[in-house]
Specification:
The structure holds three protein chains of three kinds.
Chain A (H helix, E strand, L loop, with lengths): L4 H8 L3 H5 L9 H8 L10 H10 L2 H18 L1 H4 L20 E3 L6 E12 L6 E24 L3 E10 L18 H37 L1 H16 L2 H10 L7 H32 L2 H8 L4 H37 L11 H6 L4 H6 L5 H24 L6
Antiparallel strand pairs in A: 1-2, 2-3, 3-4
Helix pairs in contact in A: 4-15, 5-7, 5-15, 7-8, 7-10, 7-12, 7-15, 8-10, 9-10, 10-12, 11-12, 12-15
Chain B lengths: L3 E14 L2 E14 L3 E5 L6 H9 L6 E11 L5 E3 L8 H10 E4 L3 H4 L6 H12 L4 H14 L5 H4 L9 H13 L5 E5 L7 H18 L2 E6 L2 H7 L2 E6 L2 E7 H6 L4 H8 L51 E2 L4 E2 L9 H6 L6
Parallel strand pairs in B: 3-8, 3-9, 6-7, 7-8
Antiparallel strand pairs in B: 1-2, 1-4, 4-5, 9-10, 10-12, 11-12
Chain C lengths: L15 E16 L4 E17 L3 E5 L6 H8 L7 E7 L6 E3 L5 H7 L3 E4 L13 H11 L4 H14 L16 H13 L5 E5 L7 H18 L2 E6 L2 H7 L2 E6 L2 E7 H6 L4 H9 L40 H5 L5 E3 L3 E3 L15
Parallel strand pairs in C: 3-8, 3-9, 6-7, 7-8
Antiparallel strand pairs in C: 1-2, 1-4, 4-5, 9-10, 10-12, 11-12
The chains are: A alpha+beta, B alpha/beta, C alpha/beta.
Protein name (chain B): Dipeptide/oligopeptide/nickel ABC transporter ATP-binding protein
GO molecular function, one term (chain B): ATP binding
Subcellular location (chain B): Cell inner membrane
């Protein structure tokens, strides 16, 4: 079967090309002339956010880090479910127990039956030290979404479902080993994630508010205000931070409850943290306020408030987001350092720093090396946040190097 | 010794980016004569600066020369095709330092801020020539005097930031002349300067060219500068040569419609207040959306329907000049003249 | 200094709309730990300038001479140190001193006096659409969105931008188009006086011609008065009725455009004209005086006539006394002790 359609198409538009080109018309003004010639111009109309996404997606490390960071915060948010057991449940029988391996298939070859092996103990006849040996005979079946220790989920309701765990509640299941009191290491790291990652957020939020306001004032008004704020920043930054924190942390009464201590620590951290944010803000505001487009807005009769909120803030908001992302890891490291030194968070609060306190002496590390795993978590979180911040900073100004 | 110093034939320099290929230089032809000043004129996006970077092989990534040749004639009659040299080879480095040197628009960015002007210039001599330190210093001071830097001996130990814009540009010129090159490429050397300083620097360049017999390739967008110093002119548009001619021919009898339009669009002192300038419609096309046919077809006031928007004209050789327009093509000229269906 | 009012020779109307009198704009320099005052930059130092209604006054000078500062001081971007900026609204009889106008008065007048910026890239907010940018002065005055749209569409048509481009962002436009957005923003409120600060300097040759023609069309359409600030004398000659030449914070010569280029009275004007590149190689080699030396530091200007260190005709009087800007025949003004004696070359007719 033949069709005549294909040949008919070109004939109906024999001079398409010529028709679309501008033809002579009575033209008097320049405006008509220019406008007409623009007719064929193809321009991309990508929005600012699209441009930023494109630029961000080019930074491969940042994209990977974004997923890692998202995963870490997910773990922090659902710590109770993800942790196999209560982080504070002790077990006298399993002190410094090594990590268990997951076996997916039954030893007798009967097929898929995930399980771990319980330990049997051997005592060194000379040192009386208890050593753990996995015993293939003692099979502990495990499964996803099992019932276990009860918890208050986000303080909303009581629940006892855990992502993974032994089918029989309260059977030993220590994927990353246990600590001095036989508490499950992985559960503690998971719960520590919530505290350590959020102390960064809260700390940075406080620094951000102080930093934005003081930095903004400093940059916008300049002169004496700027002078005073800048000297204050220089003074604060010249103080050795660890002794300063030690002094201030020592002032927190021991009788306070852990949450109050937690809050105080964030405030202490922000006390130094705002200075770098304020400097960033000041620099940005100073360069922006003399930009022609800001002068133009002023000449257009736009009010100061609208200039700040509509011209200045949007122009450096994306930049501030990037700087903030870079400030979070600093906060995390500071918390870890303080808690490690015993002047930050204290038990029963679980944070990565608190956990690392357990790994303070060489002996412990030698016998239970899995106790330094919270340190690995800190490294991963800090690196991921740094890469993410880098990527955001590059993306923050989508109009540069285009 | 041949009269020709550098012959560029069909040079193409492309930038392969994520969003597509930018043909910065696209089949450029250009001939530099010994002891002459060639001005390369064009609007932004014409590829004039990229031509300079291609000659010196200092293209930034991802730019690279994809085709063409650049035959450089040494004084002793030997020739070398610069396009075939590895950018990092010893030969290329020798050409860059000794035979061809460059003057940039903003001297501050091409001079080291932490070394004195004198040491930077004499360093060039020490690297490329077999001279003693004392000789180099003496020659440097002589050079600084020659570019009319007052109190040259004292200025030898000045840092770039201590000089005014005009003085820095003079020091830059001295540096370009340090190894007695055959060719100096100057990329918009006076654009950042005031009129009065510009006049001085142009005078100086003209004088030096005359005295030392070097060739100058001056890249500019300013037709006034061309009228002042050029012997030959190459007009570039979208990476191609549109017209190459002697400066007098170019101003008195421009061949290519683009050249004519450019000349008409400049406010001249002999125009009356309010007299209209010739304006070229539209703007330089986006590098990713090059028109088919003649590169200038979208803006040309003399384009012919069915010809200029279909086929690309060659660079036609006329008496002493070249032009890339069908009106100068022996095959198409008659058709071009008859076809009055102008698309203007 | 006396208020000598010169009737403009070629102005379309004889009425003046802007009179700057003895305007000074000094900036304090500070340094050191306590930010103490270390010097004063006299960017504008006693300027007198009259702009007649409906004409274009070109303001030329080398970079750092204070021409941009003067333009911005007129718009009260800076608070003038002293002097008067007298402005008269079209049709109104009374003068308003902008230098001392209240913020309220100033807000009202911002519809009358507008500015076109040099750099079409930095003067547009990359995060504002064309509608928001051009309509900004209207939105700021609480004009309804539908009316803003209509007026923006109208002005976009006038400057050669298609109104469909209203929702686009500036980065989708070329330099020339952006400059037309900037021009549209200045004109959308139907101003009277427009300060164009190097409005075409950043543009390519062909786009510059378009823009210059456009500015001229708009002047005719809207009956605009331009204060056209530029370092490019050929552009200034092309657009101006009167030309004011500025040197280190002062006006050294003011005259009708044709006359100042034909026969400059101040040696500085003459050297500026001599430095303009020729427009054709046929004109090469005309004798011209080369200007040597550098423009002085405005925080340490030389005594007497500020031009004397670079002037070929300087005498003892020039080194001691500051020459006032004084009226000359033909509605001209010059600040030179020897204006009568000098025979300076302009452009051969």
């Amino acid at each position: 079967m033949t069709t005549e359609l294909p040949s008919a198409v070109p004939e109906t538009h024999p001079r398409t090309k010529g028709d679309t080109l501008p033809t002579v018309a009575a033209r008097n003004s320049v405006a008509d002339d220019i406008a007409e010639s623009d007719a064929g111009t193809v321009v991309d109309v990508a929005s600012q956010w699209q441009l930023m996404r494109w630029k961000f997606s080019r930074h491969k490390a940042a994209v990977v880090s974004l997923w890692i960071v998202a995963f870490i915060y997910f773990v922090g948010a659902f710590a109770e479910i993800i942790a196999p057991q209560d982080p504070n449940r002790t077990s006298g029988r399993h002190q410094y127990a090594p990590p268990m391996a997951i076996h997916f298939f039954a030893e007798d070859g009967s097929g898929f039956a995930p399980h771990v092996h319980d330990y049997s103990f051997e005592t060194d006849p000379r040192t009386y030290r208890k050593t753990f040996v996995e015993d293939p005979e003692k099979v502990i079946p495990i499964a996803l979404f099992v019932q276990g220790d009860t918890y208050h989920f986000w303080g909303l309701f009581e629940w006892n479902i855990h992502l993974i765990g032994p089918v029989e509640p309260r059977q030993p299941f220590y994927l990353l080993g246990t600590d001095r009191l036989g508490r499950d290491n992985i559960s503690r790291i998971v719960h520590g994630t919530r505290v350590s990652m959020s102390i960064g957020l809260v700390g940075v939020a406080v620094s951000l508010v102080i930093g934005l306001i003081l930095g903004g004032l400093s940059g916008y008004y300049g002169g004496r205000v700027d002078h005073a704020i800048q000297r204050t920043i220089e003074f604060l930054r010249s103080m050795p931070t660890i002794p300063l924190w030690m002094g201030l942390a020592a002032a927190i009464p021991l009788t306070w409850d852990p949450l109050a201590v937690y809050f105080m620590i964030t405030v202490l951290l922000s006390l130094i943290g705002w200075t770098s944010l304020a400097r960033e803000t000041r620099g940005k505001v100073m360069s922006l306020k003399n930009e022609d487009f800001v002068t133009a807005a002023r000449l257009d009769g736009v009010s100061e408030f609208r200039i700040i909120t509509r011209q200045l803030l949007p122009a450096f908001m994306s930049h501030i987001i990037a700087v903030t992302t870079l400030a979070i890891p600093e906060m995390i490291l500071a918390e870890t350092a303080l808690s490690f030194l015993g002047i930050g968070l204290r038990a029963p609060v679980v944070s990565w720093g608190v956990l690392l306190q357990e790994a303070q002496n060489v002996n412990t590390v030698a016998t239970a090396p899995w106790l330094i795993l919270p340190g690995v978590a800190v490294v991963i979180a800090v690196l991921a946040l740094n890469f993410l911040g880098d990527g955001l900073r590059d993306a923050a100004d989508p109009y540069s190097h285009n | 010794m041949s009269d020709i110093l550098l012959e560029i034939r069909n040079l193409s320099t492309y930038f392969e980016t994520r969003s597509g290929v930018v043909k910065a230089v696209d089949g450029l032809d250009l001939t530099l004569r010994r002891n002459h000043t060639m001005c390369v004129v064009g609007e932004s996006g014409s590829g004039k600066s990229m031509t300079a970077s291609s000659i010196l092989q200092i293209l930034k990534r991802p730019g690279r020369i994809v085709s063409g040749e650049m035959i450089y004639h040494f004084r002793d009659g030997r020739t070398v095709d610069i396009a075939r040299l590895d950018p990092n080879s010893k030969q290329m480095r020798a050409i860059r330092g000794k035979y061809i040197s460059m003057i940039f628009q903003e001297p501050m960015t091409s001079m080291s801020p932490v070394h004195t002007i004198g040491s930077q210039i004499s360093e060039m001599m020490l690297v490329h020539e077999d001279v003693s330190k004392a000789e180099a210093k003496a020659r440097t001071i002589e050079l600084l005097t020659r570019v009319r830097i007052p109190d040259a001996a004292a200025r030898f130990s000045s840092y770039p930031f201590q000089l005014s814009g005009g003085m820095r540009q003079r020091a830059m010129i001295a540096m370009a002349l340090a190894c007695r090159p055959d060719l100096v490429i100057a990329d918009e050397p006076t654009t950042a300067l005031d009129v009065t300083t510009q006049a001085n620097v142009l005078n100086l360049m003209r004088e030096i060219q005359r005295e030392s017999g070097i060739s100058i390739m001056l890249i500019t967008h300013d037709l006034g500068v061309v009228a002042e110093v050029a012997d030959d002119v190459t007009v570039m548009y979208l990476g191609r040569t549109m017209e190459q001619a002697n400066v007098f021919d170019l101003f008195n009898a421009p061949k290519h419609p683009y050249t004519r339009a450019l000349l008409g669009s400049v406010p001249r002192l002999d125009l009356q207040r309010g007299e209209r300038l010739t304006q070229i419609r539209g703007m330089v096309p986006n590098p990713f959306a090059r028109p088919t046919g003649c590169p200038f077809v979208t803006r040309c006031p003399e384009r012919r329907f069915g010809l200029c928007d279909r086929q690309e004209p060659d660079l036609y050789r006329l008496d002493g000049s070249t032009s890339r327009c069908f009106q100068h093509d022996p095959v198409h000229a008659a058709a071009w003249a008859q076809n009055d269906e102008v698309l203007a | 200094m006396t208020d000598v009012m010169q009737p403009p020779a070629t102005a379309k109307t004889a009425e003046s709309c802007l009179e700057v009198r003895n305007l000074k704009m000094h900036f304090g320099q500070s340094g050191g730990f306590f930010r103490q005052k270390t010097g004063v930059v006299k960017a504008v130092d006693g300027v007198d300038l009259t702009v007649a209604d409906g004409e274009t006054v070109g303001l030329v000078g080398e970079s750092g001479c204070g021409k941009s500062t003067l333009g911005r001081a007129i718009l009260r971007v800076y608070e003038p140190t002293s002097g008067e900026i007298r402005y008269r609204r079209r049709g109104a009889g009374d003068w308003i001193d902008l230098a001392r106008a209240s913020p309220k008065t100033m807000t009202d007048l911002r519809n009358d006096i507008r500015m076109i910026f040099q750099d079409p890239f930095t003067s547009l907010n990359a995060r504002q659409t064309v509608l928001e940018a051009i309509g900004q002065p209207l939105f700021a005055r609480g004009v309804a969105r539908s009316e803003v749209r209509d007026r923006v569409a109208m002005i976009m048509g006038k400057v050669g931008l298609r109104p469909e481009f209203m929702p686009r962002y500036p980065h989708a436009f070329s330099g020339g188009e952006r400059q037309r957005i900037v021009i549209a923003r200045a004109l959308v409120v139907e101003p009277h006086l427009v300060v164009a600060d190097e409005a075409v300097s950043a543009l390519d040759v062909s786009v510059r011609a378009q823009t210059l023609n456009l500015l001229q069309d708009l002047q005719d359409d809207f009956n605009l008065t331009y204060l056209f600030i530029s370092h490019d004398l050929s552009v200034v000659k092309h657009v101006s009725d009167h030309v004011a030449v500025m040197y280190v914070g002062r006006i050294v010569e003011f005259a009708p455009s044709a006359e100042i280029f034909a026969r400059p009275l101040h040696p500085y004007t003459a050297s500026l004209i001599a430095a303009i590149p020729v427009s054709s190689p046929n004109l090469r080699g005309r004798p011209r005086a080369e200007l040597t030396g550098e423009i002085p530091d405005p925080s340490k200007p030389p005594p007497g006539c500020q031009f004397h260190p670079r002037c070929a005709f300087a005498t003892e009087a020039c080194r001691k006394d500051v020459p006032p800007l004084r009226p000359m025949a033909g509605g001209r003004q010059v600040a030179c002790h020897h204006a009568e004696e000098l025979e300076l070359a302009g452009i051969p007719a």
